[in-house]
Amino acid sequence: MNNTRDTAPLVLGTEKIGKLLMRYAIPAIIAMTASSLYNMVDSIFIGHGVGPLAIAGLAITFPFMNLAAAFGSLVGVGASTLVAIKLGQKDKDGAVHVLGNVVMLNGIIGLIFMTVALLFLDPILLFFGASPDTLPYAREYMQVILAGNLITHIYMGLNEVLRASGYPQKAMAATLTAVIVNCGLDALFIMGFGWGIRGAALATIAAQIIALGFELHHFSREKSFLHFQKGIFGLKRQIVTGMLAIGLSPFLMNLCACFVVILINKSLKTYGGDLAIGAYGIVNRIIFLFIMIVMGFNQGMQPIAGYNFGARLFDRLIQVLKYTIFCGVTVTTIGFLAGQIFPRSLIYLFTSDETLTDIAVEGLRIVLIFFPVVGFQMVTSSFFQSIGMAKKAIFLSLTRQLLFLIPSLLIFPSIWGTIGVWMSMPVADAIATVVAACMLRWQLKHLKV
Q: Mean of the pLDDT values across residues 366-392?
Protein backbone atom coordinates (compact mmCIF):
# COMPACT_ATOMS: atom_id res chain seq x y z
CA MET A 1 0.00 0.00 0.00
CA ASN A 2 2.86 2.40 0.74
CA ASN A 3 4.35 1.81 -2.71
CA THR A 4 1.01 2.69 -4.27
CA ARG A 5 0.83 5.89 -2.29
CA ASP A 6 4.36 6.85 -3.29
CA THR A 7 3.86 6.34 -7.03
CA ALA A 8 0.22 7.40 -7.49
CA PRO A 9 0.95 11.18 -7.56
CA LEU A 10 3.57 10.71 -10.29
CA VAL A 11 1.10 8.73 -12.38
CA LEU A 12 -1.47 11.51 -12.03
CA GLY A 13 0.92 13.87 -13.75
CA THR A 14 2.22 11.59 -16.50
CA GLU A 15 -0.25 8.88 -17.57
CA LYS A 16 -2.75 9.41 -20.38
CA ILE A 17 -5.73 11.40 -19.13
CA GLY A 18 -8.41 9.15 -20.63
CA LYS A 19 -6.89 6.04 -19.08
CA LEU A 20 -6.46 7.79 -15.72
CA LEU A 21 -10.03 9.05 -15.67
CA MET A 22 -11.44 5.58 -16.32
CA ARG A 23 -9.18 4.01 -13.68
CA TYR A 24 -10.35 6.44 -11.02
CA ALA A 25 -13.94 6.87 -12.18
CA ILE A 26 -15.09 3.28 -12.74
CA PRO A 27 -14.91 2.18 -9.05
CA ALA A 28 -16.66 5.41 -8.06
CA ILE A 29 -19.35 4.89 -10.71
CA ILE A 30 -19.96 1.34 -9.49
CA ALA A 31 -20.29 2.56 -5.90
CA MET A 32 -22.51 5.49 -6.86
CA THR A 33 -24.74 3.36 -9.10
CA ALA A 34 -25.05 0.77 -6.36
CA SER A 35 -26.12 3.50 -3.95
CA SER A 36 -28.75 4.68 -6.44
CA LEU A 37 -30.00 1.14 -7.07
CA TYR A 38 -30.29 0.70 -3.31
CA ASN A 39 -33.10 3.28 -3.30
CA MET A 40 -34.62 2.21 -6.62
CA VAL A 41 -35.09 -1.37 -5.49
CA ASP A 42 -37.33 -0.33 -2.59
CA SER A 43 -39.43 1.82 -4.94
CA ILE A 44 -39.79 -0.96 -7.51
CA PHE A 45 -40.91 -3.61 -5.03
CA ILE A 46 -43.19 -1.20 -3.16
CA GLY A 47 -44.79 -0.03 -6.40
CA HIS A 48 -45.58 -3.54 -7.63
CA GLY A 49 -46.02 -5.28 -4.28
CA VAL A 50 -48.01 -2.67 -2.33
CA GLY A 51 -49.53 -0.07 -4.68
CA PRO A 52 -49.48 3.50 -6.04
CA LEU A 53 -50.36 5.18 -2.73
CA ALA A 54 -47.45 3.36 -1.12
CA ILE A 55 -45.16 4.87 -3.79
CA ALA A 56 -46.53 8.30 -2.83
CA GLY A 57 -45.97 7.49 0.85
CA LEU A 58 -42.38 6.55 0.10
CA ALA A 59 -41.88 9.84 -1.80
CA ILE A 60 -43.05 11.71 1.30
CA THR A 61 -40.07 10.24 3.18
CA PHE A 62 -37.48 11.68 0.73
CA PRO A 63 -36.80 14.78 2.90
CA PHE A 64 -35.98 12.40 5.77
CA MET A 65 -33.46 10.68 3.50
CA ASN A 66 -31.95 14.05 2.59
CA LEU A 67 -31.67 14.92 6.28
CA ALA A 68 -30.02 11.58 7.05
CA ALA A 69 -27.61 12.14 4.14
CA ALA A 70 -26.91 15.66 5.43
CA PHE A 71 -25.89 14.44 8.88
CA GLY A 72 -24.07 11.48 7.35
CA SER A 73 -21.98 13.77 5.13
CA LEU A 74 -21.40 16.16 8.03
CA VAL A 75 -19.42 13.43 9.79
CA GLY A 76 -18.45 11.08 6.93
CA VAL A 77 -16.97 13.61 4.48
CA GLY A 78 -15.09 15.36 7.26
CA ALA A 79 -13.81 12.04 8.62
CA SER A 80 -12.55 10.78 5.26
CA THR A 81 -10.73 14.07 4.62
CA LEU A 82 -9.15 14.09 8.09
CA VAL A 83 -8.04 10.48 7.74
CA ALA A 84 -6.42 11.24 4.38
CA ILE A 85 -4.66 14.29 5.83
CA LYS A 86 -3.42 12.40 8.90
CA LEU A 87 -2.10 9.54 6.78
CA GLY A 88 -0.42 12.01 4.44
CA GLN A 89 1.29 13.52 7.48
CA LYS A 90 2.38 10.02 8.60
CA ASP A 91 0.21 10.50 11.70
CA LYS A 92 -1.29 7.03 11.91
CA ASP A 93 -2.21 7.46 15.58
CA GLY A 94 -4.20 10.57 14.73
CA ALA A 95 -6.01 8.71 11.94
CA VAL A 96 -6.89 5.88 14.35
CA HIS A 97 -8.40 8.43 16.76
CA VAL A 98 -10.47 9.84 13.89
CA LEU A 99 -11.79 6.31 13.36
CA GLY A 100 -12.87 6.06 17.00
CA ASN A 101 -14.46 9.51 16.95
CA VAL A 102 -16.42 8.62 13.79
CA VAL A 103 -18.06 5.71 15.58
CA MET A 104 -18.91 7.76 18.68
CA LEU A 105 -20.09 10.91 16.90
CA ASN A 106 -22.21 8.97 14.41
CA GLY A 107 -23.67 6.99 17.31
CA ILE A 108 -24.63 10.16 19.18
CA ILE A 109 -26.09 11.91 16.12
CA GLY A 110 -27.89 8.74 15.05
CA LEU A 111 -29.56 8.30 18.44
CA ILE A 112 -30.61 11.96 18.72
CA PHE A 113 -31.96 12.00 15.16
CA MET A 114 -33.88 8.76 15.78
CA THR A 115 -35.38 9.92 19.09
CA VAL A 116 -36.52 13.35 17.91
CA ALA A 117 -37.89 12.06 14.60
CA LEU A 118 -39.84 9.18 16.19
CA LEU A 119 -41.35 11.46 18.84
CA PHE A 120 -42.69 13.89 16.24
CA LEU A 121 -43.02 11.53 13.27
CA ASP A 122 -46.63 12.22 12.24
CA PRO A 123 -46.39 16.05 12.43
CA ILE A 124 -43.12 15.94 10.47
CA LEU A 125 -44.58 13.72 7.75
CA LEU A 126 -47.66 15.94 7.46
CA PHE A 127 -45.35 18.93 7.09
CA PHE A 128 -43.47 17.04 4.37
CA GLY A 129 -46.72 16.72 2.39
CA ALA A 130 -48.41 13.55 3.65
CA SER A 131 -52.20 13.20 3.40
CA PRO A 132 -54.53 10.94 5.42
CA ASP A 133 -54.19 8.37 2.61
CA THR A 134 -50.38 8.38 2.37
CA LEU A 135 -49.53 9.00 6.03
CA PRO A 136 -49.93 5.35 7.14
CA TYR A 137 -47.49 4.16 4.45
CA ALA A 138 -44.92 6.86 5.20
CA ARG A 139 -45.25 6.20 8.95
CA GLU A 140 -44.81 2.43 8.61
CA TYR A 141 -41.70 2.86 6.48
CA MET A 142 -40.04 5.53 8.62
CA GLN A 143 -40.71 3.82 11.96
CA VAL A 144 -38.46 0.96 10.88
CA ILE A 145 -35.90 3.14 9.09
CA LEU A 146 -35.57 5.46 12.10
CA ALA A 147 -35.34 2.54 14.53
CA GLY A 148 -32.28 1.42 12.57
CA ASN A 149 -30.88 4.93 12.15
CA LEU A 150 -27.94 4.24 14.46
CA ILE A 151 -26.90 1.36 12.19
CA THR A 152 -27.24 3.55 9.09
CA HIS A 153 -25.06 6.36 10.42
CA ILE A 154 -22.26 4.14 11.68
CA TYR A 155 -22.31 2.09 8.47
CA MET A 156 -22.03 5.24 6.32
CA GLY A 157 -19.28 6.76 8.47
CA LEU A 158 -17.13 3.62 8.56
CA ASN A 159 -17.53 3.21 4.80
CA GLU A 160 -15.97 6.65 4.28
CA VAL A 161 -13.06 5.83 6.59
CA LEU A 162 -12.60 2.46 4.88
CA ARG A 163 -12.27 4.21 1.51
CA ALA A 164 -9.95 6.95 2.82
CA SER A 165 -7.64 4.53 4.63
CA GLY A 166 -6.61 2.72 1.46
CA TYR A 167 -9.38 0.14 0.95
CA PRO A 168 -11.66 1.56 -1.78
CA GLN A 169 -12.42 -1.92 -3.10
CA LYS A 170 -13.59 -3.08 0.33
CA ALA A 171 -15.74 0.04 0.71
CA MET A 172 -17.29 -0.71 -2.67
CA ALA A 173 -17.78 -4.36 -1.68
CA ALA A 174 -19.64 -3.32 1.49
CA THR A 175 -21.96 -1.10 -0.55
CA LEU A 176 -22.59 -3.78 -3.18
CA THR A 177 -23.25 -6.34 -0.43
CA ALA A 178 -25.91 -4.07 1.04
CA VAL A 179 -27.55 -3.59 -2.37
CA ILE A 180 -27.62 -7.31 -3.23
CA VAL A 181 -28.94 -8.31 0.20
CA ASN A 182 -31.56 -5.56 0.05
CA CYS A 183 -32.79 -6.81 -3.35
CA GLY A 184 -33.14 -10.37 -2.11
CA LEU A 185 -34.85 -9.41 1.14
CA ASP A 186 -37.22 -6.99 -0.60
CA ALA A 187 -38.46 -9.85 -2.77
CA LEU A 188 -38.77 -12.15 0.25
CA PHE A 189 -40.36 -9.70 2.70
CA ILE A 190 -42.76 -7.94 0.27
CA MET A 191 -43.64 -10.58 -2.32
CA GLY A 192 -43.04 -13.67 -0.18
CA PHE A 193 -44.17 -12.72 3.33
CA GLY A 194 -46.56 -9.90 2.33
CA TRP A 195 -45.10 -7.45 4.84
CA GLY A 196 -45.79 -4.47 2.59
CA ILE A 197 -43.89 -1.21 2.88
CA ARG A 198 -42.65 -2.17 6.35
CA GLY A 199 -40.98 -5.18 4.72
CA ALA A 200 -39.04 -2.85 2.40
CA ALA A 201 -37.77 -0.87 5.38
CA LEU A 202 -36.81 -4.06 7.25
CA ALA A 203 -34.92 -5.25 4.16
CA THR A 204 -32.99 -1.97 4.02
CA ILE A 205 -31.94 -2.08 7.68
CA ALA A 206 -31.10 -5.80 7.56
CA ALA A 207 -28.87 -5.20 4.53
CA GLN A 208 -27.09 -2.37 6.33
CA ILE A 209 -26.55 -4.53 9.41
CA ILE A 210 -24.81 -7.15 7.26
CA ALA A 211 -22.68 -4.50 5.52
CA LEU A 212 -21.83 -2.93 8.89
CA GLY A 213 -20.77 -6.34 10.17
CA PHE A 214 -18.39 -6.59 7.20
CA GLU A 215 -16.89 -3.19 8.11
CA LEU A 216 -16.64 -3.97 11.82
CA HIS A 217 -14.83 -7.21 11.00
CA HIS A 218 -12.30 -5.26 8.92
CA PHE A 219 -11.64 -2.62 11.58
CA SER A 220 -11.43 -5.26 14.34
CA ARG A 221 -8.52 -7.05 12.63
CA GLU A 222 -5.06 -5.98 13.74
CA LYS A 223 -3.82 -6.64 10.19
CA SER A 224 -5.98 -3.77 8.91
CA PHE A 225 -4.02 -0.55 8.41
CA LEU A 226 -6.41 1.28 10.78
CA HIS A 227 -8.16 -0.80 13.42
CA PHE A 228 -10.04 -0.41 16.68
CA GLN A 229 -7.87 0.07 19.75
CA LYS A 230 -8.41 0.97 23.38
CA GLY A 231 -8.61 4.67 24.12
CA ILE A 232 -9.64 5.87 20.65
CA PHE A 233 -13.37 6.27 21.29
CA GLY A 234 -13.23 9.33 23.55
CA LEU A 235 -14.40 12.39 21.64
CA LYS A 236 -11.61 14.91 21.01
CA ARG A 237 -12.61 18.52 20.43
CA GLN A 238 -9.99 19.11 17.73
CA ILE A 239 -11.07 16.03 15.74
CA VAL A 240 -14.80 16.68 16.13
CA THR A 241 -14.58 20.36 15.18
CA GLY A 242 -12.32 19.45 12.25
CA MET A 243 -14.78 16.86 10.94
CA LEU A 244 -17.77 19.16 11.33
CA ALA A 245 -16.02 22.13 9.70
CA ILE A 246 -15.03 20.09 6.63
CA GLY A 247 -18.44 18.40 6.40
CA LEU A 248 -20.42 21.64 6.74
CA SER A 249 -20.51 22.34 2.99
CA PRO A 250 -22.10 19.01 1.89
CA PHE A 251 -24.32 19.18 5.00
CA LEU A 252 -25.75 22.54 3.90
CA MET A 253 -26.23 21.34 0.32
CA ASN A 254 -28.14 18.26 1.49
CA LEU A 255 -30.16 20.42 3.89
CA CYS A 256 -31.07 22.71 0.99
CA ALA A 257 -32.05 19.66 -1.08
CA CYS A 258 -34.33 18.57 1.77
CA PHE A 259 -36.09 21.94 1.76
CA VAL A 260 -36.51 21.79 -2.03
CA VAL A 261 -38.10 18.31 -1.90
CA ILE A 262 -40.54 19.52 0.77
CA LEU A 263 -41.55 22.41 -1.48
CA ILE A 264 -42.00 20.09 -4.46
CA ASN A 265 -44.10 17.62 -2.44
CA LYS A 266 -46.30 20.38 -1.03
CA SER A 267 -46.85 21.96 -4.44
CA LEU A 268 -47.66 18.61 -6.06
CA LYS A 269 -50.06 17.77 -3.23
CA THR A 270 -51.86 21.11 -3.72
CA TYR A 271 -52.11 21.01 -7.50
CA GLY A 272 -51.97 17.30 -8.35
CA GLY A 273 -52.77 15.22 -5.25
CA ASP A 274 -51.12 12.13 -3.78
CA LEU A 275 -50.46 10.39 -7.09
CA ALA A 276 -48.53 13.43 -8.36
CA ILE A 277 -46.22 13.05 -5.35
CA GLY A 278 -45.86 9.37 -6.16
CA ALA A 279 -45.03 10.28 -9.77
CA TYR A 280 -42.31 12.63 -8.56
CA GLY A 281 -40.91 9.81 -6.43
CA ILE A 282 -40.58 7.64 -9.54
CA VAL A 283 -39.17 10.44 -11.72
CA ASN A 284 -36.67 11.33 -9.01
CA ARG A 285 -35.42 7.73 -8.77
CA ILE A 286 -34.90 7.48 -12.54
CA ILE A 287 -33.06 10.79 -12.84
CA PHE A 288 -30.98 10.08 -9.75
CA LEU A 289 -29.46 7.01 -11.40
CA PHE A 290 -27.93 9.15 -14.18
CA ILE A 291 -26.92 11.85 -11.71
CA MET A 292 -25.00 9.32 -9.63
CA ILE A 293 -23.09 8.08 -12.69
CA VAL A 294 -22.00 11.66 -13.45
CA MET A 295 -20.96 12.03 -9.81
CA GLY A 296 -18.82 8.93 -10.26
CA PHE A 297 -17.02 10.60 -13.17
CA ASN A 298 -16.60 13.71 -11.02
CA GLN A 299 -15.02 11.67 -8.24
CA GLY A 300 -12.63 10.19 -10.80
CA MET A 301 -11.74 13.65 -12.09
CA GLN A 302 -11.06 15.26 -8.72
CA PRO A 303 -7.65 13.77 -7.81
CA ILE A 304 -6.41 14.14 -11.40
CA ALA A 305 -7.52 17.77 -11.69
CA GLY A 306 -6.28 18.62 -8.20
CA TYR A 307 -2.81 17.18 -8.78
CA ASN A 308 -2.31 18.78 -12.20
CA PHE A 309 -3.59 22.15 -10.99
CA GLY A 310 -1.14 22.03 -8.09
CA ALA A 311 1.67 20.98 -10.43
CA ARG A 312 0.67 23.80 -12.83
CA LEU A 313 0.22 21.29 -15.65
CA PHE A 314 -2.64 23.30 -17.09
CA ASP A 315 -2.75 21.48 -20.43
CA ARG A 316 -3.50 18.23 -18.58
CA LEU A 317 -5.94 20.04 -16.28
CA ILE A 318 -7.99 21.32 -19.21
CA GLN A 319 -7.74 17.92 -20.89
CA VAL A 320 -9.25 16.06 -17.92
CA LEU A 321 -11.95 18.74 -17.67
CA LYS A 322 -12.88 18.22 -21.35
CA TYR A 323 -12.88 14.43 -20.99
CA THR A 324 -15.12 14.58 -17.93
CA ILE A 325 -17.51 17.09 -19.47
CA PHE A 326 -17.82 14.81 -22.51
CA CYS A 327 -18.54 11.79 -20.29
CA GLY A 328 -20.98 13.71 -18.08
CA VAL A 329 -22.93 15.21 -20.98
CA THR A 330 -23.00 11.81 -22.70
CA VAL A 331 -24.57 10.21 -19.61
CA THR A 332 -27.22 12.93 -19.16
CA THR A 333 -27.97 12.89 -22.90
CA ILE A 334 -28.59 9.13 -22.72
CA GLY A 335 -30.92 9.81 -19.79
CA PHE A 336 -32.71 12.50 -21.83
CA LEU A 337 -33.16 10.20 -24.83
CA ALA A 338 -34.36 7.28 -22.71
CA GLY A 339 -36.89 9.49 -20.94
CA GLN A 340 -38.20 11.05 -24.13
CA ILE A 341 -38.28 7.95 -26.36
CA PHE A 342 -39.58 5.24 -24.01
CA PRO A 343 -40.67 6.91 -20.74
CA ARG A 344 -43.57 4.52 -20.21
CA SER A 345 -41.24 1.51 -20.17
CA LEU A 346 -39.13 3.21 -17.48
CA ILE A 347 -42.18 4.05 -15.37
CA TYR A 348 -43.54 0.49 -15.69
CA LEU A 349 -40.47 -0.68 -13.78
CA PHE A 350 -42.03 0.96 -10.72
CA THR A 351 -45.78 0.62 -11.19
CA SER A 352 -48.48 -0.93 -13.35
CA ASP A 353 -51.08 1.65 -12.31
CA GLU A 354 -52.08 3.51 -15.49
CA THR A 355 -53.11 6.76 -13.77
CA LEU A 356 -49.84 7.02 -11.88
CA THR A 357 -47.95 6.05 -15.03
CA ASP A 358 -49.59 8.81 -17.10
CA ILE A 359 -48.70 11.46 -14.52
CA ALA A 360 -45.12 10.19 -14.18
CA VAL A 361 -44.59 10.05 -17.97
CA GLU A 362 -45.64 13.69 -18.35
CA GLY A 363 -43.44 14.72 -15.42
CA LEU A 364 -40.42 12.79 -16.65
CA ARG A 365 -40.56 14.29 -20.14
CA ILE A 366 -40.84 17.84 -18.79
CA VAL A 367 -38.12 17.48 -16.15
CA LEU A 368 -35.70 16.06 -18.73
CA ILE A 369 -36.10 18.91 -21.26
CA PHE A 370 -32.68 20.42 -20.50
CA PHE A 371 -31.16 17.32 -18.92
CA PRO A 372 -28.21 17.01 -21.38
CA VAL A 373 -26.70 20.28 -20.06
CA VAL A 374 -27.00 19.10 -16.44
CA GLY A 375 -23.91 16.92 -16.99
CA PHE A 376 -21.94 20.04 -17.92
CA GLN A 377 -23.19 21.98 -14.88
CA MET A 378 -22.33 19.15 -12.47
CA VAL A 379 -18.82 18.63 -13.86
CA THR A 380 -18.12 22.37 -13.74
CA SER A 381 -19.12 22.59 -10.10
CA SER A 382 -16.95 19.58 -9.24
CA PHE A 383 -14.06 21.05 -11.24
CA PHE A 384 -13.98 24.15 -9.06
CA GLN A 385 -13.99 21.97 -5.96
CA SER A 386 -11.17 19.85 -7.40
CA ILE A 387 -8.85 22.84 -7.82
CA GLY A 388 -9.48 24.14 -4.32
CA MET A 389 -12.14 26.74 -5.17
CA ALA A 390 -14.76 25.34 -2.80
CA LYS A 391 -16.67 28.62 -2.48
CA LYS A 392 -17.33 28.73 -6.23
CA ALA A 393 -18.40 25.08 -6.18
CA ILE A 394 -20.80 25.72 -3.29
CA PHE A 395 -22.10 28.83 -5.07
CA LEU A 396 -22.93 26.83 -8.19
CA SER A 397 -24.60 24.05 -6.19
CA LEU A 398 -26.66 26.31 -3.96
CA THR A 399 -27.66 28.91 -6.55
CA ARG A 400 -29.33 26.22 -8.65
CA GLN A 401 -31.58 25.42 -5.68
CA LEU A 402 -31.82 28.67 -3.72
CA LEU A 403 -31.77 31.34 -6.44
CA PHE A 404 -33.41 29.51 -9.34
CA LEU A 405 -35.38 26.45 -8.26
CA ILE A 406 -37.09 27.72 -5.10
CA PRO A 407 -38.40 30.96 -6.71
CA SER A 408 -39.61 28.90 -9.70
CA LEU A 409 -41.43 26.52 -7.34
CA LEU A 410 -43.09 29.47 -5.63
CA ILE A 411 -44.19 31.18 -8.88
CA PHE A 412 -44.78 28.62 -11.67
CA PRO A 413 -47.32 26.32 -9.93
CA SER A 414 -49.62 29.26 -9.19
CA ILE A 415 -49.72 29.94 -12.95
CA TRP A 416 -49.58 26.47 -14.54
CA GLY A 417 -50.47 24.09 -11.67
CA THR A 418 -48.79 20.68 -11.68
CA ILE A 419 -47.01 21.38 -14.98
CA GLY A 420 -45.53 24.48 -13.33
CA VAL A 421 -43.99 22.27 -10.62
CA TRP A 422 -42.41 20.04 -13.26
CA MET A 423 -41.26 23.04 -15.36
CA SER A 424 -39.49 24.71 -12.43
CA MET A 425 -36.81 21.98 -12.42
CA PRO A 426 -35.55 22.21 -16.04
CA VAL A 427 -35.74 26.03 -15.92
CA ALA A 428 -33.47 26.03 -12.86
CA ASP A 429 -31.14 23.58 -14.61
CA ALA A 430 -30.88 25.76 -17.72
CA ILE A 431 -30.15 29.00 -15.83
CA ALA A 432 -27.65 27.28 -13.52
CA THR A 433 -25.84 25.87 -16.56
CA VAL A 434 -25.51 29.34 -18.13
CA VAL A 435 -24.04 30.67 -14.87
CA ALA A 436 -21.66 27.69 -14.68
CA ALA A 437 -20.52 28.23 -18.28
CA CYS A 438 -19.78 31.90 -17.64
CA MET A 439 -17.82 31.15 -14.48
CA LEU A 440 -15.85 28.36 -16.16
CA ARG A 441 -15.01 30.51 -19.18
CA TRP A 442 -13.74 33.29 -16.91
CA GLN A 443 -11.69 30.84 -14.84
CA LEU A 444 -10.05 29.17 -17.85
CA LYS A 445 -9.08 32.57 -19.27
CA HIS A 446 -7.19 33.30 -16.05
CA LEU A 447 -5.24 30.05 -16.05
CA LYS A 448 -1.66 30.68 -17.10
CA VAL A 449 -1.27 27.91 -19.66
A: 89
